[in-house]
Sequence to fold (67 residues):
Amino acid sequence: MITLFNQGSGWEFGIFIIVFLMIIMPILLFIYGFVVYSKNEIKGKKILIAATVYALISAGICGGTML
Fold:
């Protein structure tokens, strides 16, 4: 009975966190950047640049840990 609830390798939460930081956060930053860009061009550009840098760095670090 206990084995029914304890299936999986135990890495599911860690993989979810890595995917969240690697994929979902840059997408949310891009969306937020475009919303801010429509109101304030300079601030929006800074957020979009930060989102791009974040995406590149997280793909390198999180992608490297996924191997």
The radius of gyration is 17 Å. The helical segments are 2-5, 12-39, 41-66. The chain has a mean pLDDT of 82. The first helix runs from residue 2 to 5.
